[in-house]
Amino acid sequence: MTDLVTDGPEGSLPGKPTSVSRTTLSHIMDASHTNLLGTVHGGVIMKLVDDAAGAVAGRHSGGPAVTASMDEMAFLEPVRVGDLVHVKAQVNWTGRSSMEVGVRVLAERWNESTPAQQVGSAYLVFAAVDENGKPRRVPPVIPETERDKRRYQEAQIRRTHRLARRRAIMELRERRVAEGVDEG
Ligand SMILES: CC(C)(COP(=O)(O)OP(=O)(O)OC[C@H]1O[C@@H](n2cnc3c(N)ncnc32)[C@H](O)[C@@H]1OP(=O)(O)O)[C@@H](O)C(=O)NCCC(=O)NCCS
Question: Start and end of every HotDog ACOT-type domain (predicted)?
């Protein structure tokens, strides 16, 4: 197996197991991260999520990758100053040039000796790009465990829904322009 990605003919990229690029980003929350309530701002968590997912996408694709979308960002529990936050990310699914990265956010409470608690989750799509910012092919991800396989199948469902939703919205907009209701 190689980490190098070449833009060769269809099918020339070897697959990569999920575990090769899976990673965890850990960060202690401090007072600069808070919102008006004194808990951690959601945007701070989203930045960590994007950072961890970007690292995974870069490792899997062997080069630069940009965030194409972030969806289903869920905040399950508040994060507090002093908590140690772990952001766990892995490639769930790969297409031709895009990858869905699944992210789980866990918090170790600074004042409790309980196991880390899940406080958030998100799904991001990254596109691997070349030096001109154009999409380039990615190695297919090889799910290893039953959990990886379930995540792969769920990611395919999300992909189908994303494409269908985008197509339906584009068709509606075009129809409204054609009817003269909206400007193009
Ligand atoms: C993402 C980007 C590279 C896509 O370029 P494009 O010319 O639209 O290329 P394509 O339509 O071929 O899309 C490439 C892949 O990304 C996927 N994709 C594009 N936009 C997407 C979106 N909004 N959501 C999910 N997937 C998306 C496509 O389905 C395609 O997947 P596939 O190759 O696996 O089938 C381009 O839109 C871009 O550069 N966006 C800015 C990214 C960025 O700067 N992010 C940081 C935010 S500041």
Answer: 19-132
In the reported structure, the alpha carbon of residue 127 is separated from the centroid of ligand 1 by a whole-number distance in angstroms of 5
Residue 58 has pLDDT above 50, yes or no: yes
Domain ranges of the chain: 16-143
C-alpha 150: how far from its chain's center? 16
Average pLDDT value for residue range 41-51: 98
Q: How far apart are CA 8 and CA 15, in angstroms?
A: 14
Tell me the DSSP string of 49-118: HHHHHHHHHHHHHTS-EEEEEEEEEEE-S--BTT-EEEEEEEEEEE-SSEEEEEEEEEEE-TT--SPPEE
Ligand 1 contacts (CB < 6 A) are: 66-69, 95-98, 125, 127, 129, 133, 135, 162
Class for domain 16-143, per CATH? alpha beta
